[in-house]
């Protein structure tokens, strides 16, 4: 008679599953010393990476968003977008745990919609992150112009930014990039707080009329924007929280994906708090004379100091936003082959080609749409909802549409919410893209507007 094994506790089962996960991955295959360790991101590292995909470029456009909407509607819309994004991010975690073979949003699209879903979301994912990387390159060029007082042609600074992005994003794993996020996040926060404190102490913002008479901020409690201005401001908020599609890649490289939700809640609470505090204070003291990016609002030496601190943060943002699409392309090219997790010549040639290609395209985008606020709005409208709204609603419905689950408590409410998120995403995509395109055309027509591949100083835009 065979002796039965003693029943294992939940902690023992969890430990055994974690050990198995550490040695084998459904996406990356066997994790060995012969190649990079793709599963090496801890909980704190996850929080930092999540925050860094959001706090960086998005926060610099929050004050101008409040200028369009007014402080009260701005805060309400910000909290609404934050709530929707937090739900979307949560769905990513549950979907990944239910389908361990899913690496990115296109894998989810393939499960739900087949090859067409994979194709649409693959292209959209790559375009989205490359556009965000382009906005990072634009932000770095603005920072270099500000610090050097336009020391050379802006096109040269854009090339330098692209080189930084290519070099650092070529680090192969997010686990090794995490230390960069630990440096970049505090830098961008210090820069933003420096400007926030400076504008509260100064007599007036840098772009306000410099007269002897006292200056009073013309901030609006409730704004009255046109449709295009209002929808563009909403899309800026979408962009500020739209690190969402990158969270698939982050959870895929976590040591223990089951701790993802805890890390997510810490991240979203911190990001939302920073956005509200910075947006309200900077806009309250600057009013309609707030700059975009917001770091230029204080002007003079404060502007140089702020961008001096911000540059490492902007470089790290560009690094992460270049790494994610490059890794996406790399994994899809080599998935299932020994070259994915072995240090072979094919492995290195493919990887460097991916990071270089992303950097070149991002540089072209940054040089073609050289108006920061317009580029941010275009990304948030054209690609943001498609990456953060519709797929997540469909993912929840896919996992919870069976007859058994329809009897669950509040199922109808949850399903209705998921459908609402899909519809809202479609509306923002169409209307937001229209509004952002109109904004870009107006920026080109305006006097002093930057031209594509221009040498003009881009650090004085408002």
TrEMBL record:
<dbReference type="GO" id="GO:0015179">
    <property type="term" value="F:L-amino acid transmembrane transporter activity"/>
</dbReference>
<dbReference type="InterPro" id="IPR013057">
    <property type="entry name" value="AA_transpt_TM"/>
</dbReference>
<comment type="similarity">
    <text>Belongs to the amino acid/polyamine transporter 2 family.</text>
</comment>
<keyword id="KW-0812">Transmembrane</keyword>
<keyword id="KW-1133">Transmembrane helix</keyword>
<feature type="transmembrane region" description="Helical">
    <location>
        <begin position="108"/>
        <end position="131"/>
    </location>
</feature>
<keyword id="KW-0472">Membrane</keyword>
<feature type="transmembrane region" description="Helical">
    <location>
        <begin position="68"/>
        <end position="87"/>
    </location>
</feature>
<feature type="domain" description="Amino acid transporter transmembrane">
    <location>
        <begin position="42"/>
        <end position="437"/>
    </location>
</feature>
<feature type="transmembrane region" description="Helical">
    <location>
        <begin position="262"/>
        <end position="285"/>
    </location>
</feature>
<protein>
    <recommendedName>
        <fullName>Amino acid transporter transmembrane domain-containing protein</fullName>
    </recommendedName>
</protein>
<feature type="transmembrane region" description="Helical">
    <location>
        <begin position="227"/>
        <end position="250"/>
    </location>
</feature>
<dbReference type="Pfam" id="PF01490">
    <property type="entry name" value="Aa_trans"/>
</dbReference>
<feature type="transmembrane region" description="Helical">
    <location>
        <begin position="41"/>
        <end position="62"/>
    </location>
</feature>
<feature type="transmembrane region" description="Helical">
    <location>
        <begin position="347"/>
        <end position="366"/>
    </location>
</feature>
<feature type="transmembrane region" description="Helical">
    <location>
        <begin position="372"/>
        <end position="398"/>
    </location>
</feature>
<feature type="transmembrane region" description="Helical">
    <location>
        <begin position="305"/>
        <end position="326"/>
    </location>
</feature>
<dbReference type="GO" id="GO:0016020">
    <property type="term" value="C:membrane"/>
</dbReference>
<feature type="transmembrane region" description="Helical">
    <location>
        <begin position="179"/>
        <end position="201"/>
    </location>
</feature>
<feature type="transmembrane region" description="Helical">
    <location>
        <begin position="410"/>
        <end position="430"/>
    </location>
</feature>
<feature type="transmembrane region" description="Helical">
    <location>
        <begin position="137"/>
        <end position="167"/>
    </location>
</feature>
């Amino acid at each position: 008679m065979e002796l039965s094994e003693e029943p294992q506790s939940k902690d023992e089962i969890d430990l055994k599953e974690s050990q198995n996960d550490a040695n084998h991955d459904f996406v990356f295959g066997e994790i060995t010393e012969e190649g990079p360790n793709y599963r090496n991101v801890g909980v704190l590292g996850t929080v930092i990476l999540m925050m860094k995909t959001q706090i960086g470029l998005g926060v610099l456009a929050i004050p101008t968003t409040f200028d369009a909407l007014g402080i009260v509607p701005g805060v309400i819309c910000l909290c609404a977008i934050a709530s929707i994004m937090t739900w979307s991010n949560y769905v990513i975690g549950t979907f990944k745990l239910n389908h361990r073979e899913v690496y990115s949003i296109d894998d989810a699209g393939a499960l739900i919609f087949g090859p067409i879903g994979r194709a649409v979301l693959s292209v959209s994912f790559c375009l989205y992150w490359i556009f965000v990387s382009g906005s990072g390159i634009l932000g770095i060029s603005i920072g270099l112009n500000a610090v050097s007082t336009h020391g050379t042609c802006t096109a040269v600074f854009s090339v330098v930014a692209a080189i930084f992005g290519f070099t650092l994003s070529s680090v192969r794993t997010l686990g090794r990039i995490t230390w960069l996020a630990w440096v970049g996040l505090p830098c961008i926060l210090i820069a933003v707080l420096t400007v926030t404190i400076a504008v509260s102490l100064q007599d007036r913002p840098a772009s306000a009329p410099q007269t002897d008479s006292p200056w009073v901020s013309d901030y609006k409690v409730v704004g009255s924007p046109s449709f295009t201005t209002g929808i563009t401001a909403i899309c800026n908020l979408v962009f500020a929280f739209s690190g969402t599609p990158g969270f698939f890649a982050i959870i895929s490289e976590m040591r223990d994906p089951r701790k993802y939700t805890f890390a997510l809640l810490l991240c979203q609470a911190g990001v939302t708090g920073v956005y509200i505090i910075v947006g309200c204070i900077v806009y309250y003291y600057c009013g309609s004379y707030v700059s975009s990016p917001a770091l230029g609002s204080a002007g003079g030496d404060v502007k140089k100091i702020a961008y001096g601190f911000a540059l490492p943060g902007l470089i790290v943002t560009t690094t992460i936003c270049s790494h994610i699409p490059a890794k996406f392309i790399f994994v899809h090219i080599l998935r299932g082959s020994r070259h994915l997790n072995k240090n072979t010549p094919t492995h290195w040639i493919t990887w460097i080609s991916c990071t270089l290609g992303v950097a070149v395209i991002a540089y072209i985008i940054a040089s073609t749409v050289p108006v920061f606020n317009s580029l941010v709005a275009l990304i948030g409208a054209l690609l943001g909802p498609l990456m953060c709204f519709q797929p997540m609603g469909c993912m929840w419905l896919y996992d919870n549409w069976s007859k058994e689950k329809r009897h669950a408590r509040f199922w109808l409410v949850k399903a209705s919410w998921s459908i609402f998120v899909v519809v809202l995403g479609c509306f923002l995509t169409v209307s937001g893209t229209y509004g952002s395109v109109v904004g870009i055309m107006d920026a080109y027509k305006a006097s002093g507007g930057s031209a594509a591949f221009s040498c003009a100083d881009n650090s004085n835009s408002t």
